[in-house]
Write a structure and sequence with these properties.
Blueprint lengths: L1 E5 L14 E4 L4 E4 L5 H14 L13 E11 L11 H14 L5 E12 L1 H6 L5 H10 L7 E6 L9 E5 L14 E4 L15 H10 L61 H14 L4
Parallel strand pairs: 1-5, 4-5, 4-6, 6-8
Antiparallel strand pairs: 2-3, 2-7, 7-8
Length: about 290
Amino acid sequence: MFRSIIFATFVAISAVVASPTVFNSTVGQRTCGTQPTDAEVARMEAHFAANEVTPKSDGADHAPSEVPVYFHVIYADTTLNGGYIPDSQITHQMRVLNTAYSNALLNWKVVGITRTLNADWFNNAGPGNSQQSAMKVALRQGGPNALNVYTVGFKSGSGSGLLGYATFPSSYSSNSKDDGVVIRYSSLPGGTAAPYNLGHTLTHEAGHWVGLYHTFQGGCSGGDSVADTPPEASPAYGCPTGRDTCRDSGVDPIHNFMDYTDDSCMNEFTAGQVTRLRSQIATYRGIS
């Protein structure tokens, strides 16, 4: 496995099309720092409709599509609390990710790990700021089909309290260096960000990276562009069995990886989400 130790400080500014997920340590909830507006969703969906590529058949004859993954560990010091996560946690995280996406016929495979000592990036990287831009410009590898994962601390600055954020597929062509997922290091399996420490922060953020919105996007009007996810008025927290916030539409999809419930509550992508993500990555990432 390729490894490199990078000691770097760069300054760059780039626009982020992101969907941050925030961990509020006071109330113990996963919440969203930013969401695409209705106008932004409409723009992305219009572009998708005009340019959609039909993926290969998802039948039994279709082998899983391999997605190369570059894991970038940013650390403040060489302790676990300083963000220096071991390979064993990354291996466990990838098992969780591959299990979650098994029905989507995606095989995520780590092809590179970098470890970078940079306390400023570790503590302060966040959506749209100079630290995250410099980090991505310095470290990102591969093309549109490669998932770059950055683990940081989200200690302060615009990233304070975040669990993670991700770019959408349609933004790659306008800002390729910004493409990827940034997550809190302690959300990996065995980390300390309970109840979000079973690895589904990356599952959730990778969902945005392959083109999925939150299940509650658009509220009861159902704005996630997937027909078989019941509309949901607002994010669900914990694991509220039977929660139903939109009348006559079915119970809320609290077990869906694109909601905000505890990691232990999440266990599914719907068939409609799989169809959408396969089309999104065929269209924008060249993965079919």
